[in-house]
Amino acid sequence: MEEEDLRVYMVLKSGHKVEVVDGEEMEAIRKDFPGYKTNLIRLTPGRWLLLDRYTHFANRLYDFKWRSSDVVVMTYPKCGTTWTQEIVWTMRKNPDLDNPEGATTLLDRVPFIDFDIFVPEDAPADSPFLSMSPAFRKLCPDADPKDGVYLQLSEALPDPRTIKTHLSLSLFHPSLLDTVKVVYVMRNPKAVAVSYHHHSRLFSEVGFHGPLDKFVKYFTEGNLVYDPYWVHVKAAWELREHPNLHLIFYEDLKADIMRELRRLDTFLGTHLSDTQLAKVAEHTSFNQMKARRIDYDSFASPEVLQSEGGFFRKGESNDWQSKFTPELEADMDAWVKEKFDFGIQFK
Ligand code: A3P
Questions:
Q1: pLDDT tens-digit series, residues 147-201
Q2: Does the reported pTM lie above 0.90?
Q3: Buried b (16+ CB within 10 A) or exposed e, 19-46
Q4: What's the CA gap between 114 and 73, in Å, rounded?
Q5: How far apart are CA 337 and CA 150, in angstroms?
Q6: Is the pLDDT of residue 269 over 50?
Q7: What is the dihedral of CA 345, 77, 20, 122, to 10 degrees?
């Protein structure tokens, strides 16, 4: 047996081999990310980096029973997922802004199907991760939260469901795209790095405490949870002609929201009027979403929250420019050129 094979402790239904990141490598990562309570894992092919709790849910996620009326919002972290979740749900279920459900928590209306991988196996029953979803308690009264709050909520949600994931297309059953519509959002890697750096400092479950250039090294080497970004984007980009896949750039949403909403309206088949689309645009604007707040900030580090903002940080396309030194920008430009060599042009 090859030495490398000895580290593989499981093969998933998707065919991916699971390797644990432990020992010295994990210790070094944990120094920079003290919030990681468990080990990380790497999946091959793809070299996907995830939390080891993923192995508990992976086959159920792969075999998830999708329905033809489902819409999946799929992105690498920090590409504008939350914004797009709210846009898609509002277009489908609340275009006149008169649905009282619209006032409930976004995570309950648009479950993050892989969120359960962030909950350690030994989390106490009163952990906010296990107890914060009123929809789970209502729709799954007899279910054990340890079997996945958001996975079971996704199963129980009535049609038409809108579901969020940060997992790549490659980790789902190949029939996914032939069954459901997928909205895939991408963002300029420099903006993603700045936003993910903030996120990783803000939330104690990650707890990163280094500067941006150190974080960028993790990002470019594919060593952050849900990495590698370039493989994530490539998997969707290569299927961009599929009629059930709709690609959006965050920067396009920012530049001309009505144009993007009209494109989405055609893709989703929602047949909304311009008046309705204008309402959706206003309702999902950065300021309105920030004012409505999302529960996430209750998990945030108070210091980072106060000094640099919460989950709704800046909401801009070019904010990264003020954070990058010319050297870091040059390094990242070279990296983007090398890794995103499949025809994509970021904005
Ligand atoms: P910044 O950190 O650059 O501000 P995700 O939802 O994938 O985690 O992405 C979060 C990023 O999207 C954050 O970027 C956040 O501020 C931004 N965002 C969230 N809601 C938004 C909105 N309605 N309009 C514009 N940007 C939004």
A1: 999 999 999 999 999 999 999 999 999 999 999 999 999 999 999 999 999 999 9
A2: yes
A3: bbbeeeebeebeebbeebbebbbbbeeb
A4: 12
A5: 37
A6: yes
A7: -170
Q: What is the pLDDT of residues 36-65, one digit of tens each?
A: 988 999 999 999 999 999 999 999 999 999
Q: What is the extent of the structural domain holding 59? A: 1-63
Asked if the peptide bond before residue 160 counts as cis, ω within 30 degrees of 0, the response is: yes
Structure tokens at 239: 């299927």
The domain tally of the chain equals 2
Task: Pick the residue whose CA is nearest to atom 8 on ligand 1.
Answer: 78
Residues 59 and 99 in one domain: no
d(CA 12, ligand 1 centre) in Å = 32
In a shared domain, residues 22 and 170: no
Cα 16 to middle of ligand 1, angstroms: 31
Measured from the Cβ of residue 156, the count of other Cβ atoms closer than 10 Å reads 16
Residue 71 CA, ligand 1 centroid: distance in Å: 20
Residue 168's φ and ψ, nearest 5 degrees, are -70, 155
Residue ID of nearest Cα to ligand 1 atom 5: 78
Does residue 296 share a domain with residue 177? yes
> Which residue reads 């929809």 in tokens?
135
